[in-house]
Amino acid sequence: LYLHEFGHVVGFAGHTNDGSVMDAIANGSSTISSTTRTVINGLYSLPIGYALTKSPYNIVPKDGMMVIPLMNR
Asked: Is the pLDDT of residue 15 over 50?
């Protein structure tokens, strides 16, 4: 559970459905799938302050941090 939640801390906004650590169903897995690796590599290859304009979560840079505004406020 902690590893899954840490995934959200480092940039995973959503879940996978491949039985890995970022799966939507809490199954206790610690497997890091190829999908998870691809997302990690993609997120951490972006320059600092890069805005993810196609994100459904509307992630925007603010003071060097990536901010996810609350939806439906």
From this structure: yes
Structural domain contains residue 15: yes
Total domain count, the chain: 1
Report pTM: 0.51
Report the C-alpha gap between 19 and 26 in whole angstroms.
9
Does the residue 67 lie in any domain?
no
- Does residue 19 contact residue 27 with C-beta atoms inside 8 Å? yes
Q: Domain range holding 13? A: 2-48
Residue 56 C-alpha from the chain's centroid: 12
What is the C-alpha to C-alpha distance for residues 4 and 73, in angstroms, rounded to an integer?
26
